[in-house]
Amino acid sequence: MKHFLLTASLLCLALGPAQAQTAPTPPVQAGPISALDAQNGFRTYVLGAPIKEYPQLKRKEGVIYESRKEPLLLGNTQLTNLYFTTYQGRLASIVFGTRGADNSEALVASLTQQYGPSTSANGAAQTWEGNKVTMYVTRVGSGDYEICIVTLKSNELAAEQKATAK
Fold first, then answer.
1. pLDDT tens digits along 32-45
2. How far apart, in whole angstroms, are the C-alpha atoms of residue 22 and residue 17?
3. How far apart are CA 56 and CA 81, in angstroms?
4. The CATH number of the domain where 29 resides is what?
5. What's the CA gap between 97 and 5, in Å, rounded?
6. Which domain holds residue 100?
7. In angstroms, rounded to a whole number, what is the distance separating the alpha carbons of residues 68 and 156?
8. Which residues form the signal peptide (predicted)?
């Protein structure tokens, strides 16, 4: 599981540019993609914030953190995991999963309702790409999905940290 999570997180980052070049999905009535940038994270977790602002998160392995107190529920959708990754001491991505077609379909419908249609899609993945944040929803099994919410500003975070340190 540890190896899979790390691989999934790295895959989220690596697939970003490739996903951006696929054809967009047909439009449906839903919220704007700008809502993804406005939220800039998940629940009370803000992408780009120093990890030390979240003492409830405990290091699981390397740059992966978890909170055993966070409910594994998003609306009515049961989650299988919830992990947070860091880049240079700041929250860089949030990864969670679902199991089973019903949970996964409900989650994708909820994300589409909240953020609008995905900005690109292929058979196994959908991407919502905002100006600051990208969210990848990837099918990883028969009806199972991994969701990765990533800040696109890792380079800006690094520059900000250098400027603050001076």
1. 999 999 999 999 99
2. 10
3. 16
4. 3.40.1000
5. 10
6. 2-165
7. 30
8. 1-20
3-state secondary structure 29-75: CCCCCHHHHHHCEECCEECCCEHHHCCCCEEEECCEEECCCCCCEEC
The size of the chain, in residues, is: 166
Cβ neighbours of residue 115 closer than 8 Å, sequence gap 6 or more:
30, 31, 32, 33, 35, 36, 128, 135
Instruction: Look up residue 88 and give its DSSP letter.
Output: T
Q: Write the pLDDT tens digit of every residue in 108-125.
A: 999 999 999 999 988 889
Domains held by the chain: number:
1
Q: What is the pTM of this model?
A: 0.76
Question: Other C-beta atoms within 10 Å of 133: how many?
Answer: 24
Name the residue among 156, 2, 121, 143 with its Cα closest to residue 77. 143
